[in-house]
User: Fold this.
Amino acid sequence: MKGFSAQLAFMLGSASVRRNVGQLLRLLALLAALIAGYSVLFHYVMLYEGRSDEFTPFTGFYWVMTVMSTLGFGDITFHSDLGRAFAVVVLLSGLIALLIIFPFTFIQFFWAPWLAAQREAQAPRELPPNTHGHVIFTAREPVAEALLTKLVQYDVPYVMLAPTAAEALELHDQGYHVMVGVPDSPEIYHCARVENAAMVVATGSDEVNTNVAFTVREVSEAVSVVAVINRAPSADILELAGANHVLDLAEMLGHALARRAAGTDAVLHTIGRFGELCIAEVSVNHTPLAGVTIRDSALRERYGVTIAGLWDRGHFRAPRADDVLRENTVAILVGAENEMAALAADLMHDREALRDGLVLVIGGGRVGQAAATMLRQRGVPYRILERDPASCAPDDEHYVLGDASELSALQRAGLMQALTVIITTQDDDTNIYLTIYCRRLRPDAQIVCRATHERNVDSMHRAGAEFVMSYASLGAATIFNYLSRSDVLMVAQGLNLIRVPTPPALVGPSIAHSAVRSRTGCSIVALMHDGKIVLSPPPDTVLGADMDLVLIGTVEAEEEFLRYFGGL
Assistant:
């Protein structure tokens, strides 16, 4: 009964529903008046036939109801033409009123709103008071969806705000944790327990994100606010509004794409730090590492640096000593910062010869411009092919106006001479299209491609791209690392560094005998014991119960480790 009352109150809270219910009540009153009138006329017709003494007032009501509902039991009939004509009128009005107008009106004005109110009442409008450590999302878009996947994997609670109950229910049906509320209302953040939240993630427009940050600060000064910007000048405004972290993902992605280009390969790029541990990536193309096995590279013996993983066309795999480092391979290196610096200095010697190689950037948007900026800073020649005249700098010789789907435009931009092609448009379909085209025209060129959605990464690799950087994955990994978890660091797309206590199944044997890498795909890159970290531990190191393991691997490898050796 309490639930019925709550749903009725919720339904009647809408002005349109109240108006519809009023119309329904007026229709019922009209129908009741019609039935009462027919009941009175019944007796007058019977009086005309001289039979009025045989029927009571209730009998007249009974006859009207049986005729209007088309049941027509036949126990009461008229003998005159006037009576039969009256019966036809009652029957036709009953057909129209009871079988057509009333059912439609009842469903439209009452039953449908009732079902809608019953469903909308299921959409949460407030989180439980004991909710804490959760992440609040203000919009659903690719970065948020990629981050949600990671939060679910690590059991981090979250809630996504939906402006209407209909949107909230749709998201709820898709498996999301949602709450009804607009992102610019302080009351909504009170209901979302923002004072106990770990983070608020704003991924809407710059104006909306500014309002979100400012509104959140009205409720809580302590919660971390992360905002993604679409225009570089908005960074200062968002910081003034109260955002702790402002991410220019377009610039970050452009720099990441440029780092993959030939001519910059021989430079180590730090992608993460875990205490004293430094994680870096290097493309082996045009370096002394190309074509040799991991064993023959002797990086561990010469520099103290360990190859913790290999990226081949978007697929991460645990390294083996006999693996050959191919030119399109990106190696993930782990070691101390000074060891990385020594290796980088040696690799720099082979970089000069590549500086004359042209890099063609397709797309002159924010990502393309960011990539060009990094190429210019590194002294690498480049050209930008852009079809929108408004995005081309007329006095800049690096810009070429044209459509990348036309061969003449690609030739004018220097495709046939380019060492690397960087495709930066924000439409994944266009990027796959251009990747296939450029690969056909230049089978020997390096193609680096941008993906907006994670689901299209594999398709771009199949189309011919050596390297694909996902906008969503980059944003999700960066934001996840702001959660200040001490046991997880996301260092690259789909690649994590995790710290776990030594499982009982691994206590006793050495690292070599434990066969963690061959069994799970994770690599032990460091050990932590008594507050000290041991980088790149030797294979004969015996694992103790008081040690923590620092592992690197994909999400699937991490899950396999926990399944094989036991949970935390």
Remarks:
- The mean pLDDT is 84.
- The longest strand covers residues 277-283.
- The domain at 2-120 is CATH 1.10.287.70 (Helix Hairpins).
- The two ends are 46 Å apart (CA to CA).
